[in-house]
Design goal:
The chain has 426 residues and is an alpha+beta fold. It has eight helices and 23 strands. Helix content is 18%, strand content 42%. The strands form five sheets. It has a nine-stranded mixed β-sheet, with no helix packed on it.
């Protein structure tokens, strides 16, 4: 595994180093300084360098290099995740914009964190909330300091993301289902790419150590529960979960069971490829004059979602040739104008109601050129945000909270769909 962790400044001098195995030495920093920092490879080459049978995996924070050294065949994703977690922990202790001076002024703290987060080259506890309970340098005292027995179980136990003894006056759970629609249509209208990536964000304010059971309209679960279900489920792919989720139960019966962290966290991410309900249908028509001095653009934009809903912050960027002189734009509602810095006609509307249609017509005058050149047409880009709508059809079926005291929990669910890469070629 990892043999050594170093933090170097922009000159290549070692600020802090911690050796976990004796198969590398501090002299290796000289090789890294000469072949990576002095050669100015950062940002242009992959952040993995093999020098003299030693692998250097590194990332940057401001003007500092966080470097992991190893001679074994490690999993690079694990090493980079540890480095990112290390930076996240230092941000929690030293501030978001910690620099070289902050590192030098807190050497004792940083060496303590290095010893607690890694042992013999294997990453250990990287949970900030738990680290703060017993690494505080004597000046930051937790509000509810746990008993030594509880502290030991939190450090060594399976549930390090939540401590015992949490109390809330109101027991509430806020759930946000956030989706991004990625679409690419060809100039003939055929679909080249069509997918939805989503994430479930939660904010839990629950007392004690509750166990939660969370359910979506997953097709596999619905087909298993009832064959006479009115609404078919959604085929959810590529699920990734927060580490609080019990993956064994999900693999066995697709149930999402977990003991949640206190506060905000991302429960899961997913992807849907089939039966996507696109919120906007856009039909473009572009005509170039034979004289190459005029371009006529007609665009029909239709909101396909329910009349009870509306989209906000809708922006449609219609590309025009580089030699555009001016553009005369007519539209049903909203605002549209030619913006030379973006080389596009930009249509904006704050509120676009469901089932509404908008027609955009533009007459573009072009400057004459000495050497006529074909217009390299860029795709139309669309931005939007639709509250209480999911393009994939995913919705929350239930959230059950089980606790010994049996208290009542208020649940709040919100859906938001926005444009990811939403493009239509012309």
């Amino acid at each position: 595994m990892i043999s050594m962790i170093m933090v170097l400044n922009q000159k290549g001098d070692i600020m802090i180093s911690r050796q976990y195995r004796d198969d590398v030495s501090r002299a290796a920093a000289d090789s890294f300084r000469l072949q990576v920092i002095a050669a100015k490879e950062t940002g242009t080459q992959a952040p993995v360098k093999r020098i003299e049978n030693c692998s250097f995996l590194y990332t940057r924070h401001r003007n500092m290099y966080f470097v992991a050294l190893t001679r074994s065949n490690v999993n690079p994703a694990l090493v980079f995740e540890y480095l990112f977690q290390k930076i996240r922990i230092l941000k929690a202790y030293l501030g978001e914009e910690f620099d070289e001076n902050a590192m030098r002024n807190n050497m004792t703290l940083i060496y303590e964190l290095m010893d607690e987060t890694m042992d013999f080259g294997y990453p250990q506890n990287c949970a900030v909330d738990v680290l703060r309970l017993y690494i505080n340098l004597g000046n930051v005292k937790p509000q509810d300091e746990p008993e030594p027995s509880q502290l030991t179980s939190q450090i060594t136990g399976a549930i390090d993301w939540r401590r015992e003894g949490i109390r809330h006056k109101k027991n509430e759970v806020y759930i946000d289902v956030l989706e991004s629609v990625n679409l690419l249509l060809s100039s003939t209208g055929s679909v080249l790419r069509n997918e939805v990536t989503g994430q479930v964000q939660m904010n839990t304010k629950l007392t004690g150590m509750p166990e939660c059971k969370f359910g979506l309209n997953d097709k596999l679960v619905i087909d298993k529960e009832s064959s006479t279900q009115r609404k078919p489920g959604v085929e959810i792919d590529d699920c990734t979960f927060h580490r609080c989720v019990r993956l064994g139960k999900f693999d066995a019966d697709r149930t999402i069971t977990f003991i949640p962290p206190d506060g905000e966290f991302e429960l899961m991410r997913y992807r849907v490829n089939d039966n996507i309900n696109l919120p906007f249908r856009i039909i473009p028509a572009v005509q170039e004059a034979a004289s190459q001095t005029k371009v006529s653009i007609n665009l029909k934009v239709t909101a396909t979602f329910s009349e009870q809903l509306f989209a906000t912050h809708v922006v449609i960027k219609i590309p025009v040739p580089k030699n555009t002189a001016k553009a005369k734009v007519k539209h049903s509602f909203g605002r549209a104008k030619y913006e030379p810095e973006q080389q596009a006609i930009v249509y904006r509307v704050k509120r676009f109601a469901g089932k509404q249609e908008c027609h955009i017509q533009a007459d573009v005058d072009l400057l004459p050129t000495v050497r006529p050149k074909a217009w390299n047409r860029q795709p139309i880009n669309v931005e939007f945000q639709v509250p209480m709508f999911t393009a994939s059809g995913v919705h929350v079926r239930f959230l059950r909270v089980y606790d010994k005291s049996g208290y009542h929990t208020n649940r709040w669910v919100r859906y938001i769909t926005k444009a990811g890469s939403y493009q239509i070629r012309i």
